[in-house]
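Quick sanity check, Cytochrome c oxidase subunit 7A2-like, mitochondrial:
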Amino acid sequence: MYYKFSGFTQKLTGSAPATAYNPQGLRSGLPAESPTMIFATPTKVVSEAGATAEYMGANKVPDLQKFFQTSDGIPVHLKRGYPDRLLYRTTMALTIGGVAYCLVALYIAAQPNRK
C-alpha cells in the first residue's frame, strides 16, 4: 500500500502509487519554466540604488545613544520623562494587581466548602 501526507488532516493517508510518488503541488507534465514578469516597471538593481536608500531618514541612533548613556542618575527605562513614568507605573500596578488576584483566588480555592 502507498501513503502520502494529507494537508487537510495532517496525517498519512492511503493513496494510489502515482500520487504517492508525486509530492503535493508538483506534476510531472508541467514544464519547468520561470513565470512571466508581473511588474509594470523593472525594479532597481542594488548597484543603481546608491549608498543609501531613498526612504531612509536621518540616522537618530547616535543621538539616542548619547541621550541614554548620560549618567544623570535616572534609570534608562525612565529617561524620556512622563510617558515612561506612566508606562512604568501602569505596568507595576498591573503586576501587583495580578499577584494579589492570584493570591486571593488561591486562598478562595483552598477553603473547604461550608454549607
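Posting the structure with no commentary besides this: Residues 74-114 form a domain with the Cytochrome C Oxidase; Chain J fold (CATH 4.10.91.10).
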